[in-house]
Amino acid sequence: MARIYNFSAGPCTLPLSVLESAQAEFVEFEGAGMSLIEMSHRGPQYDRVHMEALARLRHLLSIPDTHDILFLQGGATLQFAMIPMNLSVPGKAAAYVQTGAWAKKAIADAKRLGETKIIWSGADCDFTRAPAADELTIDPDYAYVHITSNETIGGVELFEWPDTGDVPLVADMSSHIMSAPIDFTKVDVVYAGAQKNLGPAGLTVVIIRKDLLERANEEVPAYLAYRTHAPKDSMYNTPPVFAIYMMNKVLEWVEAQGGVSAMDALAQARADLIYGVIDGSDGWYRCPVEPRSRSRMNVFFRLPSADLEKQFIAEATAAGMVYLKGHRAVGGCRASMYNAMPIEGAQALADFMVAFQKKNG
Ligand SMILES: *Cc1c(COP(=O)(O)O)cnc(C)c1O
Questions:
Q1: Which of 82, 99, 102, 177 to mutate to test the pocket of ligand 1 (most atoms within 8 A of CB)?
Q2: Active-site residue flag, 139
Q3: Which residue, 49, 102, 83, 69, is CA-closest to 243?
Q4: Residue 48: what pLDDT?
Q5: What are phi and psi of 80, to 5 degrees?
Q6: Is the minimum distance from the CB of 197 to ligand 1 under 6 angstroms?
Q7: What global pTM score does this model have?
Q8: How does pLDDT run across 244-301, given as a tens digit for each residue?
Q9: Given 8, 18, 85, 256, which is the most exposed site by the fewest CB atoms within 10 A?
């Protein structure tokens, strides 16, 4: 089988060695006479995998003792509701930074559940940039501040995180978690669907400051309250065992690559290649996003016409580079390059872009 370069925004490419390792032990897990997905999640074999995944995540991201790690389901989407359900405070507004399509979805749920204030919006620049830290005024009376630190659809990354003082800062890091170190002295809650940088779909990782676990009132149903999961190591109910097992393997692979700093360097190298072609194309390729907000994970770009974009995507697909079509809401082209995308994939796309312009420009 020839592996193609998969630029999907998620679920997305995973390391081949991870897939092969899972395949090799799929039917029988460690001599148990059964597969991992058939055994009790309360048994010793799964327990070891589960605890290993928690420990690996903590070690790789240098998560301090002040924060708990939760393995949940429902995607990052369920967090749009769980955040306000757990962190809102009567009489206080929840503050949201509206950087694009995913922030809008988070805001829509927050509005259903309480008082919500949009403290910055990219609407007047068509969501082509993230705010600088000094553009955000943080009222110490906010219940929390929510950011979407990488907007997967618009390709906008927030590199300068606001200092929110004593107000909890919550970040949807779904599409760039594990691509750079996280400063846990600044952020109180991080959440991410696993399927973009951590593993397959079906698992959501939440990293939360321990003293926020108790904020939810008694009316919040058991599964939806963070405090239910933390003391049980996320085994309150049946966890998504296969997704956690796969994430554990992906994290093992990240360790072998050199950890988060290696992922960081690789993300920069891949992004430099593609943005380099865009900026060197005399305006033939255009990235609508302001240079200082350009996402390293999701590169959004346009060609001179919709017809050329169609042709570009078709020819790239034929050349073994797939899912380069932009999100249906914004059109254009998008190259999503998550941790498991090798530098060779970005180089192949960069070469293809140069050749395509030469032929059609
Ligand atoms: C993909 C994505 C989501 C939604 O994730 P699901 O796991 O599909 O619910 C939310 N936020 C961001 C930034 C995303 O990229």
A1: 102
A2: no
A3: 49
A4: 97
A5: -60, -30
A6: no
A7: 0.98
A8: 999 999 999 999 999 999 999 999 999 999 999 999 999 999 999 999 999 999 999 9
A9: 256
